[in-house]
Amino acid sequence: MSKKICMVVAYHPFMDARIFKKEAKSLQKKGYKVTMVVPRRNGNLFDIDGTPFRNSFRSKVFTHEGIKIVTYDWESCKNHLNKVLGNEKSWESQGFNNPLTQLAIQQDADIYHTHEYLSLFAGIGIKRLMKKQKGKDVKLIYDSHELTPDPLDTKYSEETRENLKQKLLYMLEEVDYIITVSDSIKSWYIENKPNLPVEVIYNSPPLTKNYLPKEYHSNNLTVGYEGNLDDKKGMKEKIIGLTEICSKSVSFQFKIIGGSRFGNSFLIPEHLQRHIQLTGWVDYQAIPNHLKDVDIGWIDLEDVENSLNKRYALPNKFFSYLNNGVPILVNKCHDMESFIHKHQCGFVIDKTNATSQDYAEALLQLLEDKCKLKQMSQNARSVMETLYSWENMEKRLFRVYELLTKQ
Q1: Pseudo-torsion of CA 370, 376, 382, 386, nearest 10°?
Q2: The model's pTM
Q3: From the DSSP assignment, how many helices (H) and strands (E) are in the chain?
Q4: What digits encode the pLDDT tens for the residues 186-208?
Q5: CATH level 2 (architecture), domain 4-204+389-406
Q6: DSSP element (H, E) containing 196
Q7: Checking CA distances to 313, which of 106, 233, 279, 305 falls within 20 to 30 Å?
């Protein structure tokens, strides 16, 4: 009989690239029976850009691409899940009686795979209650997409951060395996819980098929950005600024694969409209086609000094660029900088807060050395083929599950 897996989700959209497109689909392919318990907000599920699904996915339980999806109302859970910050003795009486925990228990899975701090709390309840109510020992995975709490995040007081950290360390006593997304985050867990096994599974896509190497013969330059345009950041202003500078020197295009989230917009100045292309949100499988004409991939993370997660970040777009032989241009962030220097697959501006002028100067300098740019492109694709593609990460995922099912 195949083992049953339940993905326990508190925040992420149900078609999240890491959770649904990669992990759940890979485990299904391997022969596991996979269920996801996912949140509705105000009665809706949401697409990856925040657009609510109003005319589809309305059933409380449905199957999508072979994965069973069980939905719950977030509003009915949040007060219970927030009890994680209270006394541990009150968790069972006040925290675990919530729809996420109870629906996950009903799936009677063998392995529960949680993806956020609060879904981990639900997972602790699942593990305890499955033992108490059914006499069943289940395995619990914490898939730490980032560090929560971020030790440097001033959004919370120092007292709250310490409370969150101590509760996390307490919960980790009942976790069987940690999966995370970068080597630095892995090191943090090893330092704090040296006996708990940790595996790094990068946010890599499947290897792009029909890949054609880039040549870099012309003086045209297309810079790409994949993902959200966040209104809270200076990202849009930087895109406009560097486009303004570069388009005066070379034939320049800035291509945005994705864009603003639902309810927001990006107003492009009229004189730059022919230089900035917005594709809108595209299907996950279609991203490689949109990167074929991109010469350099841009990543800008702001306020790095006040976020360990940003210093340690290796985001989806980072590996997406590499997967398509696109060298990366990024500001100074520890893990991306280390990766780029190790594999010679991009350029790092030696500033944590880089300006439009900084990026424009770097882009124009890179374009002058086309041989170096071509070598970076070849290196980017090569490391994905040999080390970092999802096909390689999938093997790590399977090893974790095989170890847990044998225990």
Answers
A1: 170
A2: 0.95
A3: 14, 16
A4: 999 999 999 999 999 999 999 99
A5: 3-Layer(aba) Sandwich (3.40)
A6: none
A7: 279
